[in-house]
Amino acid sequence: MAELDQVPAVVNFCRREQGILTAKGNPKGIHGVGDLGKTGIKIVNRHPGTGTRLLFDLELEKAGLRGEQIQGYDEELHRLDLDFIPLRWERFDFLVLKDRFFDQGIQLFLGLLHETFPGIAA
Fold first, then answer.
1. Alpha carbons 59 and 66: distance in angstroms, whole number
2. Is the model more confident about 93 or about 121?
3. Which residues contact 55 (CB under 8 A, 6 or more apart)?
4. Which residue, 31, 73, 85, 88, shows the most beta carbons closer than 10 Å to its own?
5. Are 98 and 9 in contact (CB under 8 A)?
6. Cα–Cα distance for residue pair 5/3, rounded to 1 Å
């Protein structure tokens, strides 16, 4: 396909901050993924296969931890009234063929994104 040979324009759609949710007030004093290996820390996890779970597993590896070392690693559920420890931002981008970037439909779509999400899509 000729399209795959072209270098696309990258249009940032939005960003999302990834992090760790803790009990309100962060009573265990967790500051990063490395703290999850401490005695007395129990977690609940995101579902396997989600992007968040894949990122978490990479962060565990960087901290020198394995999931089996962390109590609750295999438990997946949702909780409310939590605090948040940010880890990193992730971007979501659209790729547009450069020769199509100024097509009316593409520009209308990008304009709609800009109106709907001011300051995010530019």
1. 10
2. 93
3. 18, 87, 88, 90
4. 73
5. yes
6. 5
| Residue 56 and residue 66 in contact, taking contact as beta carbons nearer than 8 Å | no
pTM: 0.66
Residues in the chain: 122
SS3 content of the chain, % helix, strand, coil (to 5): 35, 30, 40
Residue 122 — pLDDT band, cuts 50, 70, 90?
Answer: very low
Beta-bridge mates of residue 16:
90
As a dihedral over the C-alpha atoms of residue 113, residue 114, residue 119, residue 122, rounded to 10 degrees, the angle is 100
Looking only at Cα atoms, what is the longest distance across the chain? 58
